Fold:
Amino acid sequence: MILRIILSAEDNIRLPKSYNHYLQAFFYKNMDPILSNFLHNIGFVYNKRRFKLFTFSKIIGKIIKKEGDFIVFDNNITVYFASPLIDIVSSSAKNLIKNDELFLVNNKLYLNSVDVIKPEINQEDIIVRCLSPITVYTTPLGQKRFQYLNPWDEKFYQIIKDNLLKKYEIIYNTSYRGELQVEPVKICQKYKKKVVYRKTLIEAWEGYYRIKGSKEILKLALEAGLGAKNPQGFGMVEVVKNVESS
Structure:
């Protein structure tokens, strides 16, 4: 399930340019404390890796100005939050609704609306665009630093597929045995994004991509995100009918 959350403030909303960490904390805070603690500290274990199984978009709103390391939005912003697990989504929705005041960094916000979106997949071939950029990386043998991949590298898509298959196995408790393809539709250098998360520079890519597979795994891609670091605000995508020409 997916939430579309519209927030407002009495004045403009001023945030650090690298706000992913703060937005992640906002969602953890607005969940049931037990669930929030489980996701933050434990998650769902798969071969020694931990998956949180939620993701969120970048902030969507009118940018008034940029001030050094800060960005100023007008007093209305939209953000999307998603998870394939209904408990995570419902917990977030209930806590957002019951709080009269919400805080994001130093901004006091009010909930205008929270809408539940249930993705309807009617075919096994969709085109998606990024609501938050996709990050894909490898860790070369003997090294600790990540090597980030770009969408012109075939490994980029293979790693996305492998990651999605692991999420599928966690959710459905069985291996996926159908077709699964991920390929570029529209990519260019302007889609490259550099995001600082807790003083770590992360390379990620927006763009348009085609995903082919069963309706279940396509829905999972929309609700769990593509690539790595989904709970840090990476890899959320939405279905589009047309690719923008700009």
